[in-house]
# Entry
Amino acid sequence: MSAGTAPQTAAAPAKPRFTRSDAALVAAGAGLTVLCAAALTRRPLQGLALLAVLAVVALILLNRESLARTDVGALLVAGLVVLPAAALLGPSFAIPGFPQAFLFRIVLALVIAVGVTYLIVRRAALPFAAKDVAAPLMLWFAWLLVGLAWSADKTGAFNYIAIVVTMIALVLATAAAGGSRRRLLWLGYTLVLAYAFVVGFTLLEARFGIRLPTSRLIDAVTSQTYAVTSVFVNQNDLATYLAFCWPFMLCAFFFTRRARWLALDALFILIGAAAFVRTGSRSSLVAAGVSTLAAVFLFRHLGARLSARTAKILGAAVAVVLVVAAGYLLFNNSQSDMLRQFRLEALLSQAQAGKGSGDIRTSLTSRGLQIAGGSFLLGVGPGQAESIISAGINALGISNLHNWWLETYADGGLVGFALHLVFFLLLVLALWPIARRDPDAFTRYLASGTVLALLGWTIGAVGPSSSVSFAPVWILYGLGLAVISRSRLAAAAGAGAGA
# Structure
């Protein structure tokens, strides 16, 4: 080799085009294809579920580098915002073939996993400024745990506690949305979408008789072919949810000038009213009336700060129409089976005659009070009242007290009832001034709708068979805490900026 010639480097061996890893992937893909094909042929629902799982795994593997750069806090916030809407939809949104694996439980599990990671990485909780209001609710839960000591049916007690733990997690997740205005706004959007699905599905039920698997009417032989349940188990649960939503739709007329929002609000009211008359729930009808009358006191000094005068007049007209319609339904003499179920006279006559819904309600109230009195006012323990009223020679054939206040009293005794009532009153008393005077219009709107819905709940609590697993009431509790927290955090930030 001459001195002027540069040394030649050895050429790198060419990389094989088909490696052992590639062969393993091809073999695995072929095996999974055969497995999915067999599953789809023999068990279509399970096969689709398997395909969905594989798709998620593939998505994670293909985007693992992007996921590694994902902000854990942002992922947690997204889960917290979606969780309340998922809870509303409940078991209706389950994986085909796996009814226990529904959307709410999946999102809750992800929120818990990401939340633990967030606390480890950030070592700081999300901002929350309503701990004093939430304290009685936590003490009520602690008292239920104490009640485990004297609960006769341990299995039922632990099952009840498991449900309460899930609902408390739902409350805290919803309350966490109060950490920022943007987060609270997105929570509102998801709940609006959930409402649109709930009332929209009632149109399919009423028109085509399509029901979700969670509905007790799906295979029931009943003359109430007009009834609708949407994502809930029965008509009373749907009616209670609609009664919760009514104040928010009423308040919209007093808080916005935008025609498209008012038009959407009016559409939601009409569809919700069409669904409500098919439920036959007298308690929810009265609850909506209570919320409407309370709105008169809340807005009497509102002035002309936000919405146009026309919108306020329209809102007042809608409220008057509701009150008149409620009066007609409660005292109607119609021959329609759908409308006659609202008659208050029928309930009173049934109670006096010792038959029907009126007699059952009276008997349940008597039994619930006896249960609490027979336990030295300590309560019989979590989930015990249900097993007591459904057993024995005087059993009514019903396993729930159909009264949330009575349920908290029978299971938790005087202490449990008092703690839950104190939480409820603190929530109302904290929200009322925010609804009247908070400088932020959106916060004031949410506070108004929430406090009016809570006032309606004082009567509406007798609607659902058992509220311990009734997600809307716990979401309402969490929303109230979120609004209080947002108002206090904003006030503290304003005070800090002005100092």
